[in-house]
């Protein structure tokens, strides 16, 4: 038999995202955005801002879940008056998170009428599509920017597909219609969205707002449209960029759509902050969008927030649900412990765990994790070997495997990441 020729191993591409696009660094409260800093996770409350306790409590929940900035609606004088009270309540709760004010239509009036609100917020979000209309647009936009300058605050200029500057869109549509090679309407509207954000940003700079106090976003609800818009936006400016698929949807649809769009952009080095705009399922915590954003960044290897569990999906060899229950218990345990570990055991967020259901891949996957367990599949001996740093350390048996494995995880974290270690 003739042996197959040995084919040299080709040069393989290096793992990891492309280098981050260089953008201006923007200070938002105690968080630095852009300038090569790690991608920041943002979220937004859905409470009535005039409900000071309810809004402060939800901000605290989002912060404890890992949101590094939280946006709130500021739409009335009463809401604006509530902002400093919310900030004071958060300080009493030892919650130090930048609060972003979301302004539409009347932001210029609210920041002028309630200076305490203008001072308490860490950033203002302005939508150029509804900051004003007709002759009032420029003066009202200028007032918002002047207030940001007066109080030393950064601004996110956030254009949105659903509230596009119609005057600009009409001008571009007319120019396109008169062109010798007109583009399709979708391309023109994408350009209108990009121009809306960029033109507003440069107008803010003309008024006197430094470039390192401006963050841009241009959100749409379609995956391919979002990727196209941000690729173009990233090539045409060095402003820090906030990523998010607007009105992403509910449940798995919203998670999949947001992840599909943002993963492509993040892999290309585009984006300085992200939000996963999920519609909460009935009874579901608002923190779900924070967890999805963290898991997206962590699974891509861009950041580490909490230990992640590798677990097999199950098959005919794993007819018991025990490995599923253990995987869920372990994931919840480390997530619950992470707020404490972040302070007492820095670095524990990089812990890797494996909960496997049978002998096929169980020992191998467990050896690859910092600490892993290979549970017995159907018909296998009722033993569960545990591996730490690639070496088998103990075999668990009996009814208390779950509790014993969680204890082993805690001891591993203590040995590896305690200050004494």
TrEMBL record:
[4Fe-4S] cluster binds at residues 312, 315, 358, 365. Pathway: Isoprenoid biosynthesis; isopentenyl diphosphate biosynthesis via DXP pathway; isopentenyl diphosphate from 1-deoxy-D-xylulose 5-phosphate: step 5/6. InterPro entries: Dihydropteroate_synth-like_sf, IspG_bac, IspG_bac-typ, IspG_C, IspG_TIM, NO2/SO3_Rdtase_4Fe4S_sf. Keywords: 4Fe-4S, Iron, Iron-sulfur, Isoprene biosynthesis, Metal-binding, Oxidoreductase. Pfam families: GcpE (PF04551), GcpE_C (PF26540). It catalyses: (2E)-4-hydroxy-3-methylbut-2-enyl diphosphate + oxidized [flavodoxin] + H2O + 2 H(+) = 2-C-methyl-D-erythritol 2,4-cyclic diphosphate + reduced [flavodoxin]. Residues 24-293 form the IspG TIM-barrel domain. Its EC number is 1.17.7.3. Gene3D superfamilies: Dihydropteroate synthase-like (3.20.20.20), Sulfite Reductase Hemoprotein, domain 1 (3.30.413.10). One of its GO terms (molecular function) is 4-hydroxy-3-methylbut-2-en-1-yl diphosphate synthase activity (ferredoxin). Residues 309-410 form the IspG C-terminal domain. Its cofactor is [4Fe-4S] cluster. It comes from the Bacteria. Binds 1 [4Fe-4S] cluster. PANTHER family: 4-HYDROXY-3-METHYLBUT-2-EN-1-YL DIPHOSPHATE SYNTHASE, 4-HYDROXY-3-METHYLBUT-2-EN-1-YL DIPHOSPHATE SYNTHASE (FERREDOXIN), CHLOROPLASTIC. Converts 2C-methyl-D-erythritol 2,4-cyclodiphosphate (ME-2,4cPP) into 1-hydroxy-2-methyl-2-(E)-butenyl 4-diphosphate. Belongs to the IspG family. This is 4-hydroxy-3-methylbut-2-en-1-yl diphosphate synthase (flavodoxin). It comes from Aquilutibacter rugosus. The gene is ispG.
């Amino acid at each position: 038999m003739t042996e197959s020729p040995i084919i040299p191993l080709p040069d393989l591409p290096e793992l990891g995202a492309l280098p981050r696009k260089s953008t201006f660094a923007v200070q938002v409260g105690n968080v630095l955005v852009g300038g090569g800093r790690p991608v920041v996770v943002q979220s937004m409350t859905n409470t009535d801002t005039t409900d000071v306790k309810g809004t402060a409590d939800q901000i605290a929940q989002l912060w404890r879940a890992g949101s590094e900035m939280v946006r709130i609606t500021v739409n009335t004088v009463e809401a604006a008056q509530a902002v400093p009270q919310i900030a004071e309540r958060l300080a009493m709760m030892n919650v130090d998170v930048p609060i972003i004010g979301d302004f539409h239509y009347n932001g210029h009036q609210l920041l002028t009428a309630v200076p305490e609100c203008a001072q308490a917020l860490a950033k203002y979000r302005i939508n150029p599509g509804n900051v004003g209309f007709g002759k009032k647009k420029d003066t009202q936009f200028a007032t918002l920017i002047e207030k940001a300058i007066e109080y030393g605050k950064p601004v996110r200029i956030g254009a949105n597909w659903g509230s596009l500057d119609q005057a600009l869109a009409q001008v571009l549509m007319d120019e396109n219609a008169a062109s010798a090679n007109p583009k399709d309407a979708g391309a023109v509207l994408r350009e209108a969205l990009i121009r809306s954000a960029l033109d507003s940003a440069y107008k803010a700079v003309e008024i006197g707002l430094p470039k390192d106090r401006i963050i841009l976003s241009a959100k749409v609800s379609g995956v391919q449209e979002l990727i196209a818009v941000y690729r173009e936006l990233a090539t045409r400016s060095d402003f820090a960029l906030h990523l998010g698929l607007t009105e992403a949807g509910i449940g798995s649809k919203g998670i999949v759509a947001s992840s599909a769009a943002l993963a492509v952009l993040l892999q290309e080095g585009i984006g300085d902050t992200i939000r996963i705009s999920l519609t909460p399922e009935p009874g579901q915590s608002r923190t779900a969008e924070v967890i999805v954003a963290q898991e997206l960044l962590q699974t891509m290897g861009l950041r580490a927030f909490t230990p992640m569990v590798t677990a097999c999906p199950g098959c005919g060899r794993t007819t018991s649900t025990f490995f599923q229950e253990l995987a869920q218990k372990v994931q919840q345990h480390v997530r619950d412990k992470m707020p404490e570990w972040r302070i007492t055991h820095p670095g524990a967020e990089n812990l890797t765990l494996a909960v496997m259901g049978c002998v096929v891949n169980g020992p191998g996957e467990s050896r690859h994790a910092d600490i892993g367990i290979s549970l017995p599949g159907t018909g296998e001996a009722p033993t569960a070997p545990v591996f730490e740093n690639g070496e088998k350390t103990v075999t668990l048996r009996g009814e208390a495997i779950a509790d014993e494995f969680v204890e082993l995880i805690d001891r591993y974290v203590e040995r590896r990441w305690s200050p004494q270690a």
